[in-house]
């Protein structure tokens, strides 16, 4: 069985808490707050005003640039105000506040569960529809999907690599989505293949989801050009560069995008959203989130409308246990710890993981013993011990020569370090500084 | 709601620790230790206990009163240094010499650079080589094991020439008939021969090495490259120089196994990348055979490792891991 060829670690996957839990809908909130930054790139521009009546699926904010995305109203009701909110990490951002009244959808949205597998649209029309629906990568990076579907001149796509890996421990939403909506995902894959003008797609799934592998294999056997690649367990296999390496044995060069080796990577959740947008006229207004943790009462996979406060989602999952020390947005390897859960659900939050206090604190760092385990663990072939030391001494230029910009933030180095050193903390500081230096140099030219 | 704990990712840890790695090495040393106790008797226990206790004491004193830091003897690295130093000593060495060795190993070899992780040279070997140069008579007077049944008294050890001394004489004289005095290969493999007490049983050391590989405490690169280099290089000499011993004698004698599996693989003083480790191992293998064949000392493992320790920084600088997506240069 395949996996990527450099580095990686094997954390305990802890998926049993929420695995195979039916996707459950979370009730609508009374008040929805829709942040205008839910993707990588420029913030979206609001096109509604205080007092406007909106329906579910109505465009309320337009993309603010090429790399940006539309935002649609996930609820029906009246716009109360457009104001700043503080997200769960203390950052301020503009948001649209809507008082929810009923649940009235735009008439063109097909809400029936019938599966519509005929798509007569041209490639250009498909991309236009995906763009209009505000679809971004739901695997974590939130990169606008339509941008990926338009390769820059001189580059051609050859393979669609579908990310069904879900290598982050604890998370199970993609797994459950494949089990419940495999057919829709398969149609979504064909739509994307048509949009890209290619005839080959590979779905990468890790072997800890044997039922998903079997289900998708069965569906793929009826679909021309689509195959399933069962993968060995290894983190960070869901990183796009690692996934491409694992599935089609090509390595994206330093600083380049997957299209350089002819690959386009999309997550299964994104592809499901593509299906809904193209075949059902439904824009991206909700997503499946995993709410999990050892002590959570009803861990599971929840379908959440954007704008719903995360605290409401938590209530459905049985409330925050007394012993909780840390709440992480996303998985434990790359997710971000939140300081409150009043923030609304949005495109960026793939799950909530509640860690008990006993697992919330880091170990005390000891001296580096130069064991080299971080070097063997780094999936990008970097030297974390060296980069963190260079960062501590503020030797930014040396960090650049040692390829710090290749770092994908996966955290393997820090995970594996016997001395529990905060390697990635130092590397992030260096990466930010080196990145700023590179941009300043480019601007000066 | 109460305050939540916020920190940057990753939020989980492998559970690996310095202490766990050090304990794994200590466990891996046990088979050889047991063989030594059986072969050499109480002396092994007394020398080891003295060495470990003095290493711990010196590290604690230096950290507390000279460096004014919280002592970290709980990480077991000083225990390991003490044990490795003892493994490199004869089991009848006067205890005051053992204490001096521990002081040099910990004081000069480790703490003078700033403690764990900072030292360029293997501390146990720094202590050992200091003793070898300062007290050559006591350090090369090895007891001869009397057999596995009788535990030997500590002081009245009978001493004898080591296989390496025999090999040295043979190659100096260019007379391979002198090699007939060597013990049998089986005696060498199980440890029925004179020498520093921890290095005598190749089989016990190999069992420890397998344990280290299975627990992923070390990788194969350093031991395998050292052993292969020694086998190939000494094989070439065996075929070309009169009086040179066959490769199997080189592999089974002296500190080679102990050095290759336990001393050269010390995290702090060995290179980080697989290729760096292989070059480092080849270097050690070449130097040890050169010293054994042409050098003034019969054994050169300690010197070989210390010399390659000095090259480690350079290897880390020039031998980079393969970057993801790196193209082979045409």
Order of helix and strand elements from N to C terminus of chain A = EEEEEEEEHHEHEHEHEHEEHEEEHHHHH
Assign an overall shape of chain A. globular
| Structural class by helix and strand composition of chain A | alpha/beta
The helix-and-strand class of chain B reads: mainly alpha
- How many beta-strand runs of chain B? 0
Amount of beta strand of chain B? under 5%
pLDDT averaged over residues of chain A: 94
Strand order across the biggest sheet of chain A?
Answer: 1-14-13-17-15-16
Largest sheet of chain A: 6 strands, mixed
How would you classify the quaternary structure?
heterodimer
Element order, helices and strands of chain B?
Answer: HHHHHHHHHHHHHH
Most extensive contact: A-B, 68 and 43 residues
Under the CATH scheme, which architecture of the largest domain in chain A would be assigned? 3-Layer(aba) Sandwich
Strand-residue fraction of chain A?
15-25%
CATH superfamily of the largest domain in chain A: NADH-ubiquinone oxidoreductase 51kDa subunit
Walk me through what this model shows.
The complex is a heterodimer of chains A (445) and B (330). Chain A contains twelve helices and 17 strands. Chain A has helices at residues 123-132, 145-148, 173-196, 210-220, 240-248, 268-280, 310-316, 373-377, 384-392, 396-401, 412-416, 423-444, and strands at residues 24-25, 31-35, 45-46, 53-54, 59-62, 71-72, 77-86, 92-100, 159-163, 201-206, 226-231, 263-267, 286-292, 300-305, 324-329, 336-338, 351-356. A six-stranded mixed β-sheet of chain A has the order 1-14-13-17-15-16, covered by helices on one side. In chain A, β5 (59-62) and β6 form a beta hairpin. In chain A, α3 (173-196) packs across α6 and α9 packs across α12 (423-444). By secondary structure, chain B is mostly helical. Chain B has 14 helices and no strands. Chain B has helices at residues 18-40, 42-66, 77-87, 95-108, 123-134, 136-139, 163-173, 185-190, 202-214, 221-240, 247-252, 256-263, 274-294, 301-318. The interface between A and B is large, with 68 and 43 residues.
